[in-house]
Design brief:
Distance between the termini: 53 Å
Bound molecules: heme C
Helix content: 40-55%
Number of helices: 10
CATH topology of the largest domain: Cytochrome Bc1 Complex, Chain D, domain 2
Number of domains: 2
Strand content: under 5%
Number of strands: 0
Structural class: mainly alpha
CATH class of the largest domain: Mainly Alpha
Length: 231
């Protein structure tokens, strides 16, 4: 009995260990030194990023600059590496995402710093002890994606069938996964990315099946649905 359960356990462990990891498919995992995460350093680096992505990583200019706050640290770090290697093209970030300005050993710190920023979608109730300054700071972190036109019901169906597996329930991402959440991200930014996926300019798993054949109204419907998920 005991031996049998040890066998079943080893088999299970073996199966888990041999499951493929999606994200490492396209770039070879490099052998890296143990990394130090320094949130103060992250905050300092963020002063540069803030020029475009906002003080709290909230992004801006109607989605020209994506929201970074709350994205998985592993995802942020991976994208920065892709920018540095020019595997993902990004002209505006070129002067910042290079070895001189952002050495590899600093990436985990800025990624962790941005990842832990929590934006709220609603203004909280204040009590009489809250100072005007505190209110101002809180107000700056209130961020909500405006509803967009489109068939929300159809968008939800498409999302559940084609996207939820990886991007999580209601677009919120998945605990412990480096796949980015889509809820709370700018509509214009995501539509632009989907165009890049469809043309192959940016890599996405199964892009051919997911995006190339999709009608503009279907993408619009998914965006309409996602814009309701952070209300
Ligand atoms: C001059 C403007 C500018 C600055 C400064 C800048 N970025 Fe960006 N960043 C952009 C733009 C534009 C994009 C979106 C590119 C696209 O459309 O694919 C982007 C995209 C990103 C993404 C991808 C987000 C996602 O959801 O995939 C990450 C991560 C990122 N930037 C991190 C940083 C960090 C960290 C810094 C500071 C070291 C920084 N950026 C500084 C303009 C900037
Ligand atoms: C098999 C898993 C998987 C499925 C299914 C999937 N995605 Fe993704 N998606 C990813 C991963 C992983 C990334 C990050 C890609 C990278 O590393 O650059 C991503 C990135 C994205 C991005 C860019 C986010 C950003 O912040 O830049 C958008 C937009 C997106 N997916 C939309 C969709 C939509 C819409 C669907 C359904 C039609 C979908 N995805 C289905 C795994 C998936």
């Amino acid at each position: 009995m005991f031996k049998q359960s040890v066998f079943v356990f080893s088999l299970l462990l073996f199966t888990l260990l041999s499951l493929p990891v999606y994200s490492s498919e396209e770039t070879e995992e490099e052998v890296t030194e143990p990394v130090e995460i320094d949130l103060d350093l992250g905050e300092e680096i963020n002063e540069v990023c803030a020029g475009c992505h906002g003080e709290f990583g909230q992004g801006g200019k109607g989605g020209e600059y994506p929201r970074l706050a709350g994205l998985p640290a592993g995802y942020i770090a991976h994208q920065i590496k892709l920018f540095k290697e020019e595997k993902r093209k990004n002209m505006p970030m070129r002067p910042y995402a290079n070895d001189r300005e952002l050495p590899d050993e600093d990436i985990p710190s800025i990624a962790a710093y941005l990842s832990q920023i929590k934006l709220t979608t609603k203004m909280p109730e204040f009590d009489e002890n809250t100072t005007a300054y505190e209110k101002l700071l809180i107000a700056k972190k209130v961020f909500n994606i405006a509803r967009v036109e489109g068939d929300v019901e159809l968008g939800k169906e498409l999302y559940v069938d084609d996207c939820k597996l990886c991007h999580g329930k209601n677009g919120k991402g998945k605990e412990g996964s480096d796949t980015p959440p889509l809820s709370g991200q700018y509509t214009e930014y995501m539509t632009r990315q989907i165009k890049h996926f469809a043309t192959g300019e940016r890599w996405h798993e199964y892009a051919e099946d997911l995006f190339e054949e999709m009608e503009p109204e279907e993408i619009q419907a998914i965006m309409a649905y996602l814009s309701t998920t952070d209300d």
